[in-house]
Every structure is written in C-alpha cells, then in structure tokens.
Amino acid sequence: MSVTFWVVVPAAGVGSRMQADRPKQYLALAGRTVMEQTLQVFLDHPGLKGLTVSLAAEDPYWPGLSCSHDPRIWRADGGRERADSVLNALALLRAKGAEALDWVLVHDAARPNLAASDLQHLLASLADDPLGGLLAVPARDTLKRAGEDGRVEATVDRSVIWHALTPQMFRLGTLHDALAGALEAGATVTDEASAIEWAGGHPRLVEGRADNLKITRPEDLHWLAQRWQS
Ligand SMILES: Nc1ccn([C@@H]2O[C@H](COP(=O)(O)OP(=O)(O)OP(=O)(O)O)[C@@H](O)[C@H]2O)c(=O)n1
Ligand SMILES: C[C@](O)(CO)[C@H](O)COP(=O)(O)O
C-alpha cells in the first residue's frame, strides 16, 4: 500500500529577487500559474490526505485560481519568514485532524517542476525511515570558499556537499516541535531540515532531479518556460 501524507506549501513570499509585478508563484507558466503547476503533482497523488497553502494576508491572486475551491486544500496565514509560514500551516493541519505521527511533505510554491517520479521516490525511500529527509542533489561544480577580499581561500571537498531541494518529509509532531524550538531560540532556519538538525536530528538525503528548480530569478522562469514548450 502506498504511504499517505499531508502537504504544506509555503506561498507567502513576495519574490523580491524576481522583481516582477506580482509574487512569483502567481506568474504564468505554460498556460497556468506557477502555483497551479506546483500543486498539481500532489493533487494527482492517491496518498494525499490534505494540503495547506500559507498565503500572505493580502493576496488578491489566490481566490482567482481554480484550485482555490478544491475541498482538499486549506488556507493558512503566512508568517514573517518561510519557517513561520510552515509552522502556521502545521497548526492548521492539526486542527483539521492530522496526527503527530503522520507524514508531512513541505514543498515551495516556487518549485513547479517536481516530477511525479521524484515524489514517489521520496515517499518510497522514507516510508520506513525513523526520522525523514529531503530531496537533494549532489554538488556538481568545483566549489571555492571566498575570502573577504573576494579571492579564493580554498577549494572545498564537493563529495560531501548537497543542494537541499523540496519536498522535505518529516513526522508532523517532530517537525512542529523542531521548528517551534528553533524559531524560539533564534536559530537560522531556511528549510525544514535545518530545524530538525537544530534539534539534533540527521535527515536522510534522497537524490532527486536537478531540474526540480526553485524559481528565484527571472532566468529560472524563462528556462522552465522554454523547457516546457519543447
Ligand atoms: N515569509 C515567507 C517567505 C517565503 N515563503 C515561501 O517560501 C518559498 C521559498 O522562498 P523564496 O524562494 O525565498 O521566496 P520569496 O521569499 O518569495 O523570494 P525572495 O526571497 O526573493 O523575496 C516560496 O514559495 C515563498 O512563497 C513563505 O511562505 N513565507
Ligand atoms: C527550502 C529551500 O527551497 C531549500 O533549498 C530554500 O532554502 C528556500 O529558499 P531561500 O532562497 O533559502 O529563501
């Protein structure tokens, strides 16, 4: 039987690095918005129990999307940082009946190119894992550490370096407590795994596809749009 799971999609960012006329999750990509493309792979999966999107307080775009009426999707309040947005969504899932031991997958609204095969690979790889983990890709290029003068200080051993992607998959209770604790302590938490690490855990790295790209700058969206056209 396939594993069942809840999904949290933090989508309350403003997309400042994108410099567009609206948050990047609402820009067009292959005939729909980035957000709709991102959600589809989860809505198509038979293991989905429910999905929460965290949205900015003033978000005029979400109500216009067809998926905003989907009964499997709930809306939570976005927070100041991505981690706050995720924490709010987890609290809402608990209120909707999710249990502490249930799996939760957290996935950026700005990653519309998650392959169904990668989602399945993550679920299958972690279903029996005691902690959980994340999709990630090994570093490909030679890595340099920069000095303050902008010159190379050293070449870093890339064999132990991975890029963290999403989804990141953990038990709801574990993730909630780790995020709440890390935020309370003022720790830097850019992804769910950082919070688990802060709490002393070692999330499993599951190799995923490098084209599960986070749209961050305009060229990322152009690259994806061209790829989806061909
Ligand atoms: N307070 C925040 C900040 C970010 N996010 C979400 O977290 C994901 C990854 O963040 P990032 O790429 O940094 O998005 P933005 O914060 O929108 O971009 P920028 O940093 O360029 O402003 C995005 O889906 C974004 O909407 C969120 O839900 N709440
Ligand atoms: C969670 C994340 O997508 C992992 O790569 C990423 O850290 C979030 O975006 P940011 O650019 O770090 O804000």
Q: How would you explain this protein's 3D organization?
A:
By secondary structure, this protein is of the alpha/beta class. It has one domain (5-229): Spore Coat Polysaccharide Biosynthesis Protein SpsA, Chain A. Helix content is 29%, strand content 25%. It contains six helices and eleven strands. The chain has helices at 34-43, 82-95, 116-126, 172-184, 192-198, 218-229; strands at residues 5-11, 28-29, 32-33, 48-55, 73-77, 103-106, 132-138, 143-146, 152-156, 162-171, 204-207. The protein has a seven-stranded mixed β-sheet with strand order 5-4-1-6-10-7-11. β8 (143-146) and β9 form a beta hairpin. α2 crosses α4 (172-184) and α4 (172-184) packs across α5 (192-198). The model has no long low-confidence stretch (mean pLDDT 97). Bound molecules: cytidine-5'-triphosphate (CTP) and the ligand C[C@](O)(CO)[C@H](O)COP(=O)(O)O. The ligand C[C@](O)(CO)[C@H](O)COP(=O)(O)O binds next to β10.
Distance between the termini: 35 Å
CATH topology: Spore Coat Polysaccharide Biosynthesis Protein SpsA, Chain A
Side-by-side strand order of the widest sheet: 5-4-1-6-10-7-11
Task: State Rg.
Answer: 18 Å
What binds here, in terms of ligands, is: cytidine-5'-triphosphate, the ligand C[C@](O)(CO)[C@H](O)COP(=O)(O)O
Which percent band covers the strand fraction? Answer: 25-35%
Identify the CATH architecture: Alpha-Beta Complex
The CATH class designation is Alpha Beta
* Content-based structural category: alpha/beta
Number of strands: 11
Spans with pLDDT under 50 lasting ≥5 residues?
Answer: none
Number of helices: 6
What is the helical fraction, as a range of percent? 25-40%
CA-based shape: globular
* Main sheet makeup: 7 strands, mixed
